[in-house]
Amino acid sequence: MISLVTFDVVGTTVDDGGMVSRALRTAVEETGAQVSAEDVEAWAGIERVSAIAALMSLGGVRPRPGVARRQLAQFKEILADAWSSEPPQEIGGAASVFAQLQERGIRVALTTDLDEQALTPLMESLGWWPARRHLIDTVVTADDVSSGCPAPYLIHRAMERTMVIDVHQVLAVGDAVVDLQAAGNAGAVSAGVLTGAGDGQTMEAVGADFLLGSVAEVPSVVSADSAMG
Fold first, then answer.
1. Are strands 14-15 and 89-90 parallel, antiparallel or unpaired?
2. Residues 56-98: pLDDT tens digits?
3. What gap in Å lies between CA 22 and CA 18, rounded to an integer?
4. CB-hemisphere CA count at 13 Å for 44?
5. Confidence (pLDDT) at 27
6. Are 99 and 126 contacting, i.e. CB atoms less than 8 angstroms apart?
7. Which residues 6+ apart lie within 8 Å of 31 measured at CB?
């Protein structure tokens, strides 16, 4: 039976119109690198300094010491300005899904490769945190772990904070391949949603346990898993 559901943020529960990817691409191309949208999407959910350095290399620029970290700061500024101008929106009644799970005694966690500085204004604009804290048990950011996806640490930290011991009682929901890889590395049940970066064929290829149109289908997945359990 599922005791905890972890949700990725951008692309899974929040629609930002692709601003994260655009901000990442801009930050990388300011170094003189030229990268494709496909490469940016492939690296968008991975720890930012590593992603920037890798994209610089792909774009023909050797990442000098300190440059990737400097461009990380630039990425944050670009993203903050973009989100301020066009605040992201909730996807598919995500807050309603959180409420349904809470009513059934299932804990809810948000996990993200963004840091707290970037995430806090977004949560506040949506009214999710701290105003609706009763719907979300914990929020785990890049600041809380040594490495983001595809490492399992975001999920494991959410388990630690919500006192869930058995990884088989965790459903990890995300829109990108790295989210599903993190779920697999954590030992959790995985669900891919088609509202963000990933496509169904690729998600199936990496072993998603469930493939969903959006987070709105999560309560039915939890019911099905509980019935099988």
1. antiparallel
2. 999 999 998 899 999 999 999 999 999 999 999 999 899 999 9
3. 6
4. 29
5. 96
6. no
7. 56, 59, 61, 63, 67, 71
Give the DSSP H or E segment for 68. helix 67-85
d(CA 86, CA 16): 8
Q: Are 76 and 118 in contact (CB under 8 A)?
A: yes
Distance between CA atoms of residues 138 and 224, nearest Å: 25
- How much is the pTM? 0.92
**Residue 228: is its pLDDT beyond 60?**
no
Bridge-based pairing of strands 107-111 and 210-212 is unpaired
pLDDT surpassing 80 at residue 133:
no
Identify the burial level of 165 via C-beta atoms within 10 angstroms of its C-beta, where 0-12 means exposed, 13-18 middle and 19 or more buried: exposed
The DSSP-derived string for 109-159 is EEE-SS-HHHHHHHHHHHT-SSTTGGG-SEEE-GGGSS--TTSSHHHHHHH
Please report how many Cα atoms fall inside a 13 Å half-sphere around the Cα of residue 4, on the Cβ side.
Answer: 26
Q: What digits encode the pLDDT tens for the residues 184-216? A: 999 999 999 999 877 888 899 888 999 999 999
Nearest C-alpha neighbor of 89 from the set 214, 228, 219? 214
Strand partners, 5: 108, 171
What radius of gyration, in Å, describes the C-alpha atoms of the chain?
17
